[in-house]
Amino acid sequence: MTEDTVRSALHLTPDGASVDIDSDHFWNHRAADLTDGIVICEGPQTVTWDRWERHPDDDEIAVLLSGAVEVDLDDGQRTWRVGLKAHTPQIIPAGAWHRLHIHESAQMLFATPRPSRTQQRDAASRTAP
Question: Whole-prediction pTM value?
Answer without folding.
Answer: 0.83
